[in-house]
Structures are given as structure tokens and as C-alpha cells.
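Loading example: each entry is read as two labelled lines plus one structure line.
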Amino acid sequence: TQLLEQSPQFLSIQEGENLTVYCNSSSVFSSLQWYRQEPGEGPVLLVTVVTGGEVKKLKRLTFQFGDARKDSSLHITAAQPGDTGLYLCADPGDTGRRALTFGSGTRLQVQP
Amino acid sequence: EAGVAQSPRYKIIEKRQSVAFWCNPISGHATLYWYQQILGQGPKLLIQFQNNGVVDDSQLPKDRFSAERLKGVDSTLKIQPAKLEDSAVYLCASSLAGGDYGYTFGSGTRLTVV
């Protein structure tokens, strides 16, 4: 089972600032998913990255998968209060098992 | 489509009592998961079902936790007896075919053991 480390654990910023959060592992991911979880709700899938070096954009969110597929980052441009939440990276595991292994998350708070 | 339904939303019990959580997955989703999320941590898999069979329960504390998915549709997770460290959010998720087409999570049940 992969051990996923996320950093920072907590981030509090002002509206309009940019930020980057990270997800690292000592092992190679076959693919990686990013989720956002709001208080009182379950995680919601943001993106899946599969290919080393891949970059995906979702409005103001940019996701990057490391060339060696052992790390990933999420960059948010001009953060808004609606971005507040817990950002989780997750390893979907191998085909046939496909149960998510989550990192501990980065809790983001965007102050208006 | 309707999402993953969970009940109750909140539960407070005393230690050593029993509690049960219910999950109704998205219609047609063969795979169902129960996760435990302790405050400040990411969700941790407790058990995975494929239809009504268990795929992985290696992280389920079987001395006190049990789960079933009769008829391969809805599922129940039970804790008996509860301990203080069981205080957490219990999330249910389902997927169409082992996660290959994505996962959908319910809103969870927040359990407080006092």
C-alpha cells in the first residue's frame, strides 16, 4: 500500500493569492487522483492524472504529475473563498482492486 | 442521478454501546466501499464489496466492526462495542466497476463516542 504524504497540512491565505500543495510518495503511482472535501460532505473528484509529466487544468486549478510519477502538485491561481476545503490526493491502486488510498490532506482556508 | 445516500448524518453514543450505519449506493454500482475518516486525516478504507462479496476487509477491526451487503445493493456497517477512538466520519462510496469509472462518496455519518 502506498504511503502518500501531503504538504502543507494547513494553509490560510487571503482571497486573490496563489498557492501550491503537494503530494509525494516513495513509490510510483499508476495514476493519481485529487479530491476536494467540504465540511460535512464526502470527497469530490477534481481530476485524474495518469501520464508522467502530465498537466491538467480545471479553471483556476492546475494539476501536475511528476515525470517519475512519484509526486504531484495542485496550483490554485487567485484563490477564492469557495476554494476553502480539504484537498486530498489519492492512489486508486491496481486494476482489479481499485480502492482509494488517501493522503492526509491539505486544509485550505481562503479569507475574503 | 441520485447520489450515495447515508444515514444517520450524526450519532452520539456512549462507549461500549452499539451503532449501525446504512448506505444506499448509486443504482447499478457494483462496488461499495466503507471508509473511516478521523478528524485531521484522510479517509482510510475499512471494507470493499463487489456485489455482495467482500473484496478487501484487511483494515477492518473485526473484533468490533462488521459489515454486510445483502443482495448486493445497500450496506450496513456496525460497531459493537464502540470505543472512544471510533469517533470519526464514516464515509460510504460506490463505483460502477471497481473504480475504473470513478467513485462517488456519500456525505458520511459523523460518530461521536463519549
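The CA atoms of residues 8 and 77 of chain A lie 17 Å apart.
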